[in-house]
Design brief:
The complex is a heterodimer of chains A (485) and B (972).
Chain A lengths: L4 H9 L20 H5 L25 E6 L6 H4 L4 H5 L6 H4 L9 E4 L6 E4 L4 E4 L12 E7 L6 H10 L9 H9 L9 E4 L26 E2 L18 H20 L5 H24 L6 H6 L8 H15 L4 E4 L12 H25 L6 E6 L3 E2 L2 E3 L12 E2 L3 E7 L7 E2 L1 E2 L6 E3 L4 H11 L8 E4 L2 E4 L15
Parallel strand pairs in A: 1-8, 1-9, 5-14, 6-7, 6-8
Antiparallel strand pairs in A: 2-11, 3-4, 5-13, 9-13, 10-12, 15-16, 17-18
Helix pairs in contact in A: 11-12
Chain B lengths: L29 H12 L18 H6 L16 H6 L14 H12 L14 H11 L18 H6 L16 H7 L9 H4 L6 H12 L47 H12 L10 H13 L5 H9 L5 H10 L2 H15 L18 H12 L4 H10 L14 H9 L18 H20 L18 H11 L27 E2 L4 H42 L6 H9 L7 H14 L3 H7 L1 H20 L6 E2 L10 E4 L7 E5 L26 H9 L7 H14 L20 H13 L4 H9 L12 H6 L12 E2 L2 H11 L3 E2 L9 E3 L5 E3 L6 E2 L13 H5 L18 H9 L1 H17 L4 H13 L5 H22 L8 H15 L1 H4 E2 L1
Parallel strand pairs in B: 6-9
Antiparallel strand pairs in B: 1-2, 3-4, 5-10, 7-8
The chains are: A alpha/beta (485), B mainly alpha (972).
């Protein structure tokens, strides 16, 4: 956002409905860049909590992250992890071996081959299933990790782990850590934005997906809606003439200044006034960033916007691009519903969610590339786990079969800043059940993302109760450098 | 079949002694070369008695067993051996101990390099306690206390040897012939299809190997007693450890003689201030004091009438009486109680799962806490009831449950607040249950003890002398009620549990008066239902009669009498003649309800209405009152240390106990059961905790109350009084308060008054210029802070000032509405909205305004509220429609008080919102803006139909500004 203060004030007083805090602009809160200079990493002086951009620990490869949070558990053996052995052993029972990974042992069937065809794509020859025709065209831009594993076979704990490192709620999420570590390039928008289901339903674990945990609340994600009011209470819910709004704001500013003038030295009063200023700027910036009308027909169509199945997710992906362009640091995108949770009818339910997301995701990659943003933006795609190679039965009809949750081995991918496209890293066992070679833990995944952002997972900590708390906890972690360019 | 990678291979326990070599060839040998070094240089801490970190380095077995992590100190290579990792580079011995010489290091290295050989046995003996933890985790749910499938009980060696219907479970010495091993190896046990329902998982291969070994070694029962504190001095935690300031009982220091200090608090504070060339800031003016005291004690702005009364009170003790007035307010308990609910982690839902099921009856605990504060329940009693209320009375056999007895049970809700997902079968495992238990220990540690107990969950505390062992003695203390192997499920998650009884955490011991009022209420509604139904029935009878008359009218009049007779006579008693009549006419004369309703639209309408009324009445039918409680179930499973905090990495068997560092280390922990069938462990714990001499209990709570008033603790780390916490700024003051608090009957109200009547508390919050440098963080309490009010107070004040606060207390929480875009708003009660503490605290549906102002997610509790200043707060207050509505109510309230006069209206707004009159400047500004606003509204009035005058609209805008202003959020 490069709008000058003058033009901003102009646009405020030019009758924008809602907040117009022109009279409160006695000073520019974020002019104090000396704060930054005073802070150096590694010093133990208590740091100020704000969202100003901060220096990373070392030269970053990525400046911003788009996390495509495919929660529900995308089935690796039907998408990325081609397993001919499953065809050979189709129908064979491995119940006793696999029992401890089962959520619903009552409906456990035998090994099940993928009902979908696989083909090699790109120069790298990556195997991708027929369900992702659009992404298949971008395999040379992505690094596929086929050996990720999680430690819980149920959604909630597994999602907690993906988001914040442990299988329990109440801890800061990856996005919160990122903006705690790096601040944001745009002070007029939230630093950490969440694009969740536009239909109003929250994803599994609801707001815990973007919580700040023990970090100060200003590092939490702000949910922006792709349709309707983007941020709660962003617009006034009552219509009033501009002049009334202006008069009210003017009085508020004056009364607050009187209040403040009698209480010199109380910095919290500055912070409160600043929060009102940010609120005013947010209204304008958010509306600008979220306005898709400036996009060309071609762009919209590349994201699948205005096609029934892809419209929702397409809008969210396009918004994600607009937001990173505006300098937002971390964006988390959730697909609608639990589309990846294919317990039954995988033959039709998996194609459906693929259809909804494939074109938008490919559109995003193409758009980022075309705009040169691939050098700055890291895109990560993945769920909380994958699915089991055995069938989950629904009555006697094998066509109704699906797959149960499979945390022991699944596929995720990275694209964009710092990533060596066309990489295929790690593998599962012959049946795609458990990560076998070059296993990547959730903590490894976190450390890798932090590393790409220029942060050391050991150095990124928060002192709480006299202890250094970290995203990666006390686990031994490994940055997966093999996927780096 | 195909090979599966990454099977865990057992790598522990066996080392070949190196037979067949001559003595010299086999050197270096443990006994000859290594043991002397380790005994001399390491034995002081790591022998078989002290076993610091669980590690004994003086024997080969000790080395093999390793420390708390359970990892052997000896590995296949030198570099992988923990022993070498610790001593190479000088990590051990610690700095102040004599180091290992180069020669010693070389010897150890060469010994490790050639296979760490020894003369004596190096094989660790497998005891029943290496095996039982797995049987408890995997099997006893079906083969234990409540069920013995196949007649088999796997809880003791004796019962294992005895076996079940198919014979003994083990054949000592012959693992392959042992049924238990066969069943486990074939993976028939635990039955793969039953595991989720039963909350168990199959045995891991390493566990099976242990079982095999134990059987091979004879399946013996060794005489192993749980580790508990004995009358012998504790070898692990020493008296030196106990010297740390907060582990010593508080001592009353002499009150310094300071001129002008009438309150000991001032004497202590002023001494330090004057030593540093400082003094107190000036006293705050009366109006500010009244507002400060009222907010501090009730969380609400003062009523203007009260303010005036106190302002006009010229008597010397007006201030004390003002403090008393607010201490006696019923709102006091609502405000201070909320502080306690934060510490407990109060919630009306289970959490962890997305479904977030509602915890019925949880609110009784909330009410208990509010009442306890209002009644000034002594803190020692308050704690005892909350920790062991179930042990205080014999509920099961009581003739009458008294309110006191019920209270004590309700109080145990304290340790039932942690997020808990185990209502869903798939996560109802030992691991998840232990998470709940450790959350509760965390709650206890952070709220009451001021210790970071969580750190000792996986290993001995790194900073405080809390051994891993002590953590698990605490677990054992609570195991009578919280047993990870014998679990009471919380509220089931819909469709995620096959267990039928979802309310097992409820007890029915309701006091007689509540039971009666419930029954009365129930009967009242039942009567109403009956009445409504009767009305319909009467109508139907009437209409049926009318129908009959109509039909009869079409028949010969002389038949009427006999036909009516026939209809009245029950079928089986009818005469032949009547039967003939019936055959011919009955169908014609009678009509079914259904047809009657079809014919008669009035009646059909009534039937529909009745149905609706009945349903709505049934909805009003009160739930049977129950208590959500924690209670001792009499037969706790054994407690093993979980190495690294992992249930499947069990270590030493321990018994109940408390933290050694907070005792003399030589007094056994004696469970104190007052009734049959309970362990009495928690009651003994509560007794220990509430001992007048306890080093932490009183200190931690007086510090918390101090923080409540001063915005900063004497110990800044409110929940960490340990080595890594912040030392007290005024240790003598802290101790004086702690001891006096106990001497004054652990009375909160005494403590409030003591603090609030100090000159320190009455200081202004103005920051004098010299203080910015000399006391920048106010660590010397040279002024009062400017405090942003808490989330609840923001909302409650908005309601109170606008006249929309319904002050009804207690009972079922108020529901919320979740708008499609995610905005959560509490629903109206009766005459407005109730205080925020009465709004349902469902974890996933926290009212947005409270969340914006930092109402925390309880995970598991909140020890200190954050105080953020973020844009969503501004957006909410500026744009939210409910705040607008409240502004209108505020304006209407003002207009009702002073209908015409603008000046008086402005005055009134200031009185209600800020407890003061406006200054001249503010008055002028307010006038100007109100005039301009009125003019504006006049000009737009023409094209807008409205029943509100321009003056009223302007006033509402003005009120909205006032509710958005800084002064509304901050208290001086």
């Amino acid at each position: 956002m490069t709008q000058s203060r003058r033009s901003f004030l102009g646009s405020v007083s030019n009758g924008l409905q809602g907040i117009a805090l022109a009279s409160l602009f006695s000073q520019d809160l974020y002019q104090s860049s000396d704060l930054l200079a005073a802070e150096t990493h590694g010093s133990h002086a208590p740091r100020a909590h704000n969202l100003l951009p901060r220096q990373p620990h070392f030269r970053p490869r990525a400046k911003a992250v788009i996390q495509l949070m495919m929660q529900g558990g995308p089935s690796q053996v039907d998408l990325f992890d081609y397993k001919p052995e499953l065809e050979k052993h189709h129908g064979k029972s491995i119940l006793k071996e696999i029992a401890k990974d089962l959520s619903s042992p009552d409906s456990a069937g035998g090994l099940m081959k993928s009902p979908f065809k696989f083909q090699q794509h790109g120069d790298c020859g990556m195997w991708v299933s027929e369900l992702l025709p659009h992404l298949s065209q971008h395999v040379d831009d992505i690094a596929l990790v086929r050996s990720m594993f999680n430690t819980h076979q149920n959604h909630e704990p597994a999602i907690y782990k993906i988001q914040s490192g442990k299988t329990m709620p109440g801890l800061p999420t990856l996005g919160a850590w990122t903006v705690y570590g790096l601040g944001s390039e745009n002070q007029n928008l939230p630093a950490y934005v969440v694009l969740a289901n536009p239909d109003g339903r929250l994803p599994v674990n609801t707001v815990q997906n973007w919580q700040p945990g023990y970090l100060p609340p200003l590092y939490q994600g702000t949910r922006i809606r792709a349709k309707g009011t983007p941020i709660l209470n962003l617009q006034s819910e009552t219509e009033e003439p501009d002049a009334v709004v202006d008069l009210s704001r003017d009085l508020l500013g004056r009364l607050d200044r009187i209040h403040q003038s009698k209480r010199a030295g109380h910095l919290e009063l500055d912070a409160r006034i600043a929060s009102y200023e940010l609120a005013a700027r947010m209204q304008i910036s958010a509306n600008e960033a979220l306005d898709l009308s400036a996009e060309t027909e071609e762009t919209l169509s590349n994201y699948g916007i205005d096609e029934k199945e892809t419209d929702n997710f397409g809008r969210q992906c396009l918004l994600a691009r607009r937001l990173v362009e505006s300098g937002v640091r971390f964006i988390q995108v959730h697909p609608p519903g639990q589309g990846w949770d294919n317990h039954s009818n995988i033959g039709s339910s998996l194609p459906s969610i693929c259809k909804q997301t494939d074109k938008p995701v490919a559109g995003l990659l193409a758009d980022l590339k075309q705009r040169g943003l691939m050098d700055d933006v890291l895109v990560v795609w993945g769920g909380e786990f994958g699915r089991l190679p055995i069938a989950q039965l629904r009555g006697d009809d094998p066509k109704k079969s699906g797959r149960d949750h499979g945390p022991a081995g699944f596929s995720v991918w990275f694209a964009g800043a710092g990533i060596k496209g066309g990489t295929m890293y790690g593998s599962t066992d012959e049946i795609g059940w458990r990560a076998a070679e070059n296993r990547v833990s959730v903590a490894d995944w976190h450390a890798t993302i932090l590393h790409l952002l220029g942060m050391d997972n050991e150095e990124l900590f928060y002192e709480s109760h006299g202890f250094k708390e970290r995203l990666t906890g006390v686990e031994k972690v490994r940055v997966v450098k093999e996927i780096f360019a | 079949m195909m090979k599966f990678t990454s099977t865990i291979i057992l790598t522990m326990l066996f080392v070949v002694g190196g037979q067949g070599l001559s003595a010299d060839e086999r050197r270096p040998l443990f006994e000859d070369d290594i043991q002397p070094i380790l005994t001399k240089k390491c034995g002081q801490c790591h022998d078989d008695i002290v076993k610091s970190g669980g590690l004994d380095l003086t024997s080969m077995i000790g080395l093999k067993k390793g420390g708390e992590s359970g990892e052997s100190a000896i590995a296949e290579t030198v570099d992988d051996s923990l022993l070498w990792i610790m001593i190479d580079g000088g990590g051990m011995p610690p700095e102040d101990e004599p180091p290992l010489t180069a020669a010693e290091l070389a010897t150890i290295k060469s010994w490790l390099a050639v296979g760490a050989r020894a003369k004596g046995p190096t094989e660790v003996q497998i005891t029943q306690h290496d095996v039982l933890p797995y049987l408890f985790a995997r099997c006893v749910v079906c083969h234990g206390r409540h069920k013995q499938e196949g007649g088999l009980d796997l809880r003791t060696v004796a019962s294992i040897r005895k076996g079940g219907k198919s014979g003994p479970a083990v054949v000592p010495g012959k693992p392959d012939e042992s049924l238990i091993l066969q069943k486990v190896l074939s993976k028939d046990m635990p039955p793969p299809k039953e595991i989720i329902r039963a909350g168990v998982r199959p045995m891991e291969s390493a566990e099976i190997e242990l079982l095999r070994k134990w059987i091979a070694q004879g399946a013996k029962a060794y005489d192993i007693q749980p580790s508990v504190q004995t009358a012998q001095p504790d070898p692990v935690v020493t008296d030196e450890d106990r010297q740390f300031w907060s582990f010593q009982p508080p001592q009353k220091a002499e009150i310094p003689e300071i001129a002008g200090a009438n309150n000991p608090i001032d004497a202590f504070l002023l001494r330090k201030l004057r030593d540093n060339g400082l003094g107190y800031s000036k006293t705050a003016p009366k109006l500010k004091l009244i507002r400060r005291v009222c907010f501090d004690l009730t969380g609400l702005p003062p009523e203007w009438d009260d303010v005036q009364r106190f302002v006009n009170d010229e008597s010397p003790d007006w201030y004390e009486r003002m403090v008393d007035h607010y201490l006696d307010s019923p709102h006091y308990g609502e405000h201070l109680g909320r502080m306690w609910l934060d510490l407990a982690g109060y919630a009306d839902s289970e959490g962890k799962r997305s479904a977030d099921p509602i915890r019925k009856h949880s609110w009784r605990y909330r009410d208990y806490v509010i009442r306890a504060f209002n009644d000034d329940k002594p803190y020692d009693r308050f704690l005892t009831e909350q920790i062991a209320g179930d042990e205080l009375y014999d509920f099961e056999n009581a003739e009458e449950v008294t309110p006191e007895m019920m209270d004590a049970l309700v109080a145990t809700g304290f340790l039932r607040q942690a997020p808990d997902g185990t209502g869903s079968d798939i996560v109802d495992t030992v691991e998840e249950r232990f998470e709940v238990v450790s959350d509760e220990i965390d709650v206890l540690g952070s709220s009451v003890l001021g210790l970071t107990l969580r750190c000792a969950q996986c290993h001995s505390h790194k900073y405080d002398p809390i051994p891993h062992r002590d953590y698990f003695r605490l677990v054992a203390t609570f195991q009578g009620a919280y047993d990870v192997y014998d679990w009471l499920k919380p509220t089931s998650v819909a469709n995620q549990s096959k267990q039928k009884n979802p309310t097992r955490r409820f007890l029915p011991y309701i006091s007689t008066d509540i039971e009666r009022s419930w029954e009365t209420e129930k009967e009242k509604i039942e009567e109403q239902i009956a009445d409504v139904k009767q009305k319909l029935a009467d109508q139907i009878t009437e209409q049926r009669e009318a129908y009959l008359n109509q039909q009869l009218a079409d028949l010969p009049a002389d038949m009427e009498q006999s036909l009516r007779e026939m209809l009245k006579t029950p079928q089986e008693k009818r005469s032949d003649e009547q039967q003939a009549l019936a055959k011919q006419y009955e169908a014609q004369l009678t009509i079914s309800d259904k047809d009657l309703l079809k014919q008669n639209s009035e009646l059909a309408k009534l039937e529909k209405e009745t149905d609706k009324q009945v349903k709505s009445l049934q909805k009003q039918m009160p739930d049977q009152p129950m208590i959500r409680a924690l209670w001792d179930r009499g037969e706790p499973s054994p407690t093993w240390v979980f190495r690294r905090g992992e249930f499947n990495n069990p270590g030493e068997l321990v018994g109940p106990g408390v933290l050694s560092v907070l005792t003399d280390g030589q007094t056994p922990f004696e469970p104190a059961s007052l009734k049959d069938g309970t362990t009495g462990r928690r009651l003994a714990f509560a007794k220990w905790l509430t001992d007048a001499e306890h080093p932490l209990t009183s200190r931690v709570i007086v510090n918390r109350l101090w923080h409540h008033h001063f915005g900063r603790g004497i110990v800044e780390s409110l929940s960490n009084f340990g080595n890594s916490g912040v030392p007290p700024t005024h240790p003598e003051l802290l101790d004086w308060l702690a001891v006096s608090f106990v001497e004054n009957g652990w009375s909160f109200k005494w403590l409030h008054k003591q603090i609030m009547t100090s000159a320190a508390y009455r200081q202004s919050s103005q920051i004098e210029e010299d203080l910015v440098e000399k006391d920048p963080a106010n660590a010397r309490f040279s002024r009062m802070p400017l405090k942003r009010v808490r989330a609840e107070s923001v909302r409650d004040s908005l309601l109170a000032v606008s006249g929309e606060l319904d002050t009804t207390q207690f009972g079922e929480p108020d529901t919320v509405t979740v708008r499609k875009d995610g905005l959560v708003t509490a629903n109206k009660y009766d005459e407005g909205w109730r205080r925020s503490i009465y709004v349902r605290q469902r974890r996933k549906e926290i009212p947005t305004i409270l969340e914006n102002f930092d109402l925390p997610q309880m995970s598991p509790n909140c020890v200190e509220r954050p105080n953020s200043m973020v844009a969503p707060q501004a957006l909410h207050l500026l744009n939210n429609s409910l705040i607008r509505e409240l502004s209108v109510s505020f304006a209407e309230r003002v207009e009702a008080d002073v209908p015409e006069d603008r000046d008086q209206q402005i005055e009134r707004v200031y009185q209600l919102a800020f407890s003061r009159p406006p200054s001249d400047e503010e008055r002028t500004l307010s006038h100007q803006t109100l005039d301009a606003l009125t003019e504006k509204w006049k000009s737009v009035e023409s094209d807008q139909e409205s029943d509100r005058s321009p003056e009223s609209r302007a006033l509402a805008n003005y009120c909205h500004v006032i509710l958005n202003s800084a002064e509304f959020l901050f208290v001086d």
